[in-house]
Amino acid sequence: MKISKREQLLLSILVILLVAFAYYKLVLVKQNEKINSLVSQRNNCEEKMYKIKNKIATQPKIKSDIKKTNSKIMEDLRNIFPEIEQERIIIAINKLLSDSSLTGNVINFTEPKLTKLSGEDNEGKKEDKVSTSDELSNLVEKYKDINDEENKKVENKNIVRENKKIPNGEAQKMSINISFKGNHPALINFIKSVEGFNKKIVISKININTSDGNNLSGTLTLDIYGIPQFNKEEYVPYDFDVPHGKNDPFAGGIIAKDTVSEPKKETYDFLMSVRAETSDLPTVILGEAKDQNEKTYVYGDKNDVEQVSMELWEKAGQYYYRYKTSRDKYPMNYEAGSKLEPQGNEINIKVYSNPRKSNGDMAGVNFKINNKTNLNLNIVVENDDKVAPRVNVIKEGGNINIR
Questions:
Q1: H helices then E strands: how many in the chain?
Q2: What letter would DSSP give residue 121?
Q3: 3-state class (DSSP) for residue 192
Q4: What is the mean pLDDT of the chain?
Q5: Residue 251 neighbours by CB distance under 10 Å
Q6: How many CB atoms within 10 Å of residue 308?
Q7: What is the DSSP string of 273-291?
């Protein structure tokens, strides 16, 4: 059969269309599905990358906030014993009795237990439970081990952490029963000494009997509370013979309102601490020495030199101050400043520094200060690195002495 040219052309077009259709269905459609799948994967990866970048960007702030929180926790715990040691507590109680001229004998101690500091049961009594495994101390050690591993960047995917929370609102508690003899003033002095002691001691029970003349006798119960400290490497062991303890985050590892190393005659208006970035506390803390609520504190936290500026001035017989770091300032109404009541005839600032930990330890401070008052301003820097000091004081005006 003879095919005309017109039919040949139509058959050629049909074959081309069939080939094109087959190519579209068998190749292009599958390729398009694969492309769409890859585009979707790319979008998912970009979204994950965006989230990861955001997390990375917020990590420095989160770490800084954690250190700031650590500082506040240490301040809140400064009046609690870091651990309960019978021998040292006996020394403390004997000293309190001796200083008060009260004769007393320790009858017995109870074993340390975990007791709730907040929350009461239906009968309104605090719930105690015996600690048979030193749970708080064990948790502190685990925290310390985890911190050491993170600081050293040790990779160990096989580490299994127990899902165990720190007991909520609990502390170790030990009760001490004491028999005493003495006159009324001696007993009152002892009670005042206990209330004024730099660690929390509670007189939970007291029984008083009259004796010969003006003498009294009786028994009393003292409750001792202890919370193990999480930052042991920055804790200085307390000494009961002197006002002890580094009670705040400034002194070496912790700011102290009354530090062991400070003679009683030396008082400071402001305290600053400067430490390594690997510390659990911010690299720079500055605040009023008498501020127990940390309302005047400003912070800096980076492995670099922090720029801190401070200005003091006098107006109508009243002294004012203001200061700031790269992230904080005080007061919030910075231009107006905050009132200052100097502790003496001079303004004194204590700076607690620390030797550098390694060649990569670059944390430090440029402390720019301008004294526009008529008082001398003294800056005492303690324990700074001898080779590469962390603290650089820049005098911008006024009477400023560096010791």
A1: 5, 18
A2: -
A3: helix
A4: 78
A5: 25
A6: 23
A7: EE--TTSSS-SEEEEETT-
C-alpha 240/C-alpha 244 separation (Å) is 7
Which neighbouring-strand residues pair with 233?
none
DSSP helix/strand/coil, 175: strand
Q: Is residue 346 a part of any domain in this protein?
A: yes
- Same domain? For 323 and 198 the reply is no
* Contact assessment for residue 303 and residue 361, using Cβ atoms and an 8 Å cutoff: yes
Q: How far is CA 158 from CA 154, 163, 283, 296, 307, in A?
A: 12, 15, 32, 44, 42
**Angle separating helix axes 86-99 and 184-196, nearest 10 degrees:** 130
| 245, part of any domain | yes
Three-state secondary-structure class, residue 156? coil
Sort 402 into a burial class: Cβ within 10 Å, 0-12 / 13-18 / 19+.
Answer: middle
For 100, the token pair is 């008060």
- Locus of tokens 């591993």: 149
Q: What is the pLDDT of residues 364-386, one digit of tens each?
A: 999 999 999 999 999 999 999 99
CA distance 312 to 298: 16
Instruction: Pick the closest to residue 76 from 138, 145, 164, 169 (CA basis).
Output: 169
Beta bridge partners of 393: 367
Do 219 and 265 sit in the same domain of this protein? no
- Tens-place pLDDT, residues 324-373: 999 899 999 999 999 999 988 999 999 999 999 899 999 999 999 999 99
* Whether the model pTM is above 0.85: no
Element (H, E) at 67: helix 29-76
In a shared domain, residues 210 and 290: no
Q: Provide the pairing of β-strand 305-315 with 364-372.
A: parallel
If 0-12 CB within 10 Å is exposed, 13-18 middle and 19+ buried, where does residue 99 land?
Answer: exposed
The helix/strand/coil state of 221 is strand
Task: Summarize the confidence of residues 6-15 as an average pLDDT.
Answer: 84
